[in-house]
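In response to reviewer comment 3 from the previous cycle, which asked for concrete evidence that the modeling workflow produces usable outputs, we include below a single protein chain processed end to end. The sequence was submitted unchanged, and the resulting structure tokens are shown without manual editing.
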Amino acid sequence: MGNTLKVLRSVFILILFSLLSNCSTSTNENFVLATYRGGEVRLNEYVDHYLLSTKRKPDEMPTEDNLIDIVSEKAISKIAILEAQNRELIDSPNFLKKLNHSQKKILFYRYMRQEIINAVITDSLVRRFYTDYSPQYNMKYILRPFIEKSKQEFIQSQKDTIDFIYEMLQNGYSFAELAKRYSQDMVSNKKGGDIGFLVKESIGDEIIRSVMDTLSDYSYSTPFLGVAGYYILYKGEKREVNIPLFKDVKDRIWQTLYRTRRHYIKEKAKLRFDQLSSHYNYDVHEITIKKISNELKIQPKRDPFKYENLSIDVLNEPVATFIEDTLYIRDIYADKKKRPTDKFDFRLRLNALAQEKLFALHARELDIHKENEVIDELQNIYDSQLRNELYHQEVKIKADNKIELISDEEIKQLSRFELRRLHLDIEKDFRQLLEAEMKEKFKLEINDHQMENALQIALRKKKLQNMEMVSK
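The workflow returned the following structure tokens.
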């Protein structure tokens, strides 16, 4: 009975939404809420923004102040692009560099999804996961991991340890207690190795899935080598679960598969990169890497691949080349969070960046940049970067210059927090000045005559949104 009422309520909401939508579009249309020289802001832009920003705030109803804020923000965002174009900032080296980088990122991510990820996480795999949704088994494991750059001595010690744990299991020790004591999986070891009730396909490692298939209920495996290291697997309680509708769990299944199949995605991307390298004349300048490595002989206690140990001249050295592009040492260290600290990490970062650039080139060859969704995404990136360049020059740089005029003595008297607060306040002043000038220059006007009408439409749609949220 409860499910029936829920379905009827959902149907009622859909009908109501249709009636309200048809009513609002037929009688009010998508009228203009603000105008400026060169453009306008319409009702749908305001309503969409308002509903999205208040989706989790059922009590936040539309107000005149909120409408003016949203419409003004939308208008200023568009005006900033026009102003940047008027100032010919599209020729700014800083803008062109950031735009080029962002557009390549977009093409790389799209290429990865279409050419690599979709080839690993296929529709048939998603369906197979769903088909095997029930029964599920309570699985546990003991893990002794190692990574690609682990030394052979360490790998052998991990194998010896897992063999020792297996002997203890055979002598009657508790699996859960041994997992707490010896497993190095930091998430599951505190729970006695328990990783929950699982569908087989939710396990990313093919070897673990294969071992799981061979185990009887309430039994453990012999030690085996998997993707992350050495394992002992335990197969526990079996349970039947209610199978939800495919459409309700499809996205969740995809996310699970993506999370657990990353090593397959990585392998496939590497294989594709190797296949395309010669096509794009990819060449690593090993002599440059060797030049850095030689510093170890001079100063053996200092790793030359750490950023602070690299000179400006070395940072400007090219480390890899291919058609239409060059990678420099400085590019490898550009992202502070991903800076390598040794030769192994350096190679990983070099390979990752080269892969991004090469896949972006191949994406253009495949005309991925001509797909409608990608065109829209690239246009949004262009607008965003152009707008950012205007604020960079008129707000960020001017604020930095003003801070530099403050004497060293005054700066020393400020705490780090106070200095940051001062910088933000100065930026805020320059931003307000810029936006006031743009409003005046482009003659921004809010359409007061349509404000009440817009608020009524927004209120109706907000009430409908609240009803939909309750029904879920």
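The chain has a mean pLDDT of 90. We consider this sufficient to address the reviewer's concern, and the full set will be provided in the supplementary archive.
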